[in-house]
Amino acid sequence: xxxxxxxxxxxxxxxxxxxxxxxxxxxxxxxxxxxxxxxxxxxxxxxxxx
Length: 50
Fold this sequence. Notes:
Largest sheet: none
Order of helices and strands: HHH
Distance between the termini: 62 Å
Number of domains: 1
Structural class: mainly alpha
Oligomer: single chain
Number of strands: 0
Strand content: under 5%
Helix content: 55-70%
Low-confidence stretches: none
């Protein structure tokens, strides 16, 4: 039978997961809201960026 308490004591998180988490949270990503705000700015000012 598996002793869950002992297994939890031995647990160490994967370094790959930790590294990926840091990279994801530290990166600024453009989301739909950012795109819509840019479109609204362009329509108000009459300019368009490429």
